[in-house]
Design a protein that fits this description.
- The structure holds 2 protein chains of 2 kinds.
- Helices cover 51% and strands 0% of the residues of chain A.
- Chain A has helices at 3-25, 44-63, 75-95, 105-129.
- In chain A, helix 1 (3-25) runs antiparallel to helix 3 (75-95) and helix 2 (44-63) packs antiparallel against helix 4 (105-129).
- Chain A is globular, with a radius of gyration of 17 Å.
- The model of chain A has no long low-confidence stretch (mean pLDDT 95).
- Chain B has one domain (3-28, 41-148).
- Chain B contains 4 helices and 2 strands.
- In chain B, helix 1 runs antiparallel to helix 3 and helix 2 runs parallel beside helix 3 (76-94).
- Chain B is globular and about 45 Å long.
- The chains are: A mainly alpha, B mainly alpha.
- At the A-B interface, helix 1 and helix 4 of A face helix 1 and helix 4 of B.
Chain lengths: 173, 160
């Protein structure tokens, strides 16, 4: 199996993660970062920090050392750090950098990459619980590109025209 | 780029979904399928049914006969069985010599990534409902391509 081909698909995974995370965060209420639905449940800011943390942990298998991100002053800064980490990680994949300690592409996928994707879904659920749900779309036609990993993600290509659970006043994207 | 290599990694993604999804849904508290965090959210039963629909949709795209069906939630144990059955059908197609009628990237960014996000939602609903799943170092999990049924490895590195 060619490592290069696997890494290209992993890069696409990171791009899809960037897209879905922004989908869950775009136009969120100003206080969404500190929204807490219950004791022991992470806030959105804590979730985004954790996503940066697991991706940073993944990066240590390219560069060594440890990665434990400290809380930042604002939610926006947490989001930017997450996207920065996506970019750094993707660069290692694109460069063909060696993995340390017997790590493999499959284990990157099943561990931190998948972890982060599940948390993107949790951000979307918290949006709904916070009273500001995210409109559905057909993701298979979404404009997801491997080089687009920052906060500036494309708008939906095919937003759902019917949204049974839409909040009052929703008029489509 | 070799489609076979990408296809192989996509199968590992499906196996990961089986492992993580199974962990989120198995051994849930009694009545969890009907748990509603507030009036506007789906129940875990509805989310799991949607995941089943996504996997069926993914298979239909892969096999060139795209169809979408909104199913009504089954009883929780039946819905779990459907989840694994849908995974097995999807994985079986991916593991065959039959042609893929959509690029691996599209299959991933659509139904598969969607299913992962919903597994995450079921996991957080378990925590909100007071029956959280244990944390785990998934790096070390025994996830194997093709192992997509309910019989997942029990040798886990878990923590609270």
């Amino acid at each position: 199996m060619s490592v290069d081909d696997r890494r290209k698909l992993l890069n696409h995974f990171l791009a899809a993660l960037a897209y879905r995370t922004q989908k869950a965060l775009r136009d969120a209420p100003s206080d969404f970062g500190s929204f807490r639905i219950g004791e022991g449940v992470r806030t959105p800011a804590e979730l985004v920090r954790h996503m940066a943390s697991v991706l940073g942990y993944a990066r240590t298998f390219f560069v060594g050392g440890h990665y434990r991100p400290e809380p930042l002053a604002s939610f926006d800064e947490e989001i930017q750090r997450f996207h920065d980490m996506l970019g750094l990680l993707a660069q290692h994949l694109r460069n063909g950098d060696s993995l340390l300690e017997g790590m493999t592409e499959e284990r990157l996928l099943q561990g931190p990459f998948s972890d982060a994707m599940t948390h993107a879904g949790q951000l979307a659920l918290l949006r709904r619980l916070a009273g500001a749900p995210v409109a559905p779309e057909n993701f298979i036609v979404a404009e997801i590109r491997q080089e687009r990993l920052g906060p500036d993600q494309a708008k939906p290509v095919s937003p759902d025209k019917i949204w049974p659970e839409a909040p009052k006043g929703w008029q489509g994207e | 780029m070799s489609d076979t290599d990408k296809r192989s990694l996509l199968r590992h993604t499906v196996a990961t979904l089986a492992y993580r999804g199974g962990k989120a849904v198995l051994n849930a508290p009694e009545g969890f399928d009907q748990f509603r965090a507030n009036d506007s959210t789906r129940t875990p039963g509805q989310i799991l049914a949607h995941i089943g629909d996504l996997l069926d949709w993914g298979l239909s795209i892969a096999s060139g006969k795209q169809t979408w069906h909104d199913s009504k939630p089954l009883a929780w144990e039946e819905e779990i069985a459907r989840f694994f059955t849908a995974l097995e059908a999807f994985d079986s197609y991916l593991g065959s010599d039959n042609p893929l009628h959509a690029p691996e990237e599209k299959l991933f960014q659509g139904p598969i990534a969607d299913a992962f996000t919903h597994v995450g939602q079921i996991a957080i609903l378990r925590r909100i409902a007071g029956g959280p799943i244990r944390g785990e170092n998934y790096f070390r999990a025994e996830i194997e391509s093709g192992r997509v049924g309910a019989d997942q490895s029990t040798r886990r590195v878990e923590f609270d």
